[in-house]
Amino acid sequence: MTKRAAIYARVSTSKQTTDNQMIELQDTAKRLGWAVSDVYEDHGISGGKGRGDRPAFDELHKAVARGEVDVIMAWSVDRLGRSLQDLVMFLNEVHEAGVDVFIHQQGINTATSPSSRMMFQLLGVFAEFERGIIRSRINAGLDRARSQGKKLGRPGLSDYKINRIRKQLTAGHSVRVVADMVHVSTGSVSKVKKQMLASVK
To answer: How far apart are CA 90 and CA 92, in angstroms?
Structure first.
């Protein structure tokens, strides 16, 4: 019986594309004699997000529960998730449903190799470890910047733009119109407006 393969692809930013992942996985499915029954894609979503924040991943879970999938295909283990706990829960869920997992980059195929299950969990450990290192580096960089007296966050508006915003607000224009005229966010205009109102109280 031909296996029904569901492909899951994910990219972390909207500027990235899943095209390369999809082409390679579809070619692999064809080579293995699997029929791609459905494709699930999450765009601009971090692997650190849970199932509830990844619509396509959530739909994949539901398809597994309905018995519509025989094997799940993904480009890399970190496409499925970066949390060890989430990866283990995912693997247990699909295993209990009798669904296999194929991970292209790491050469994991639980349909043909029982040892792939252990390897899948081990890769999850490394993915979580890598995520922890990145988080630590970011926090260390922020702490270093603070200790050097650097101001974090978005740069403030220049005096020139603040004066332009005040002038247009005084002329009676709405926050949105002023934001478009000065090329700033409505939040920035609202902040200036709030300061103006506070100064006349």
So the answer is: 5
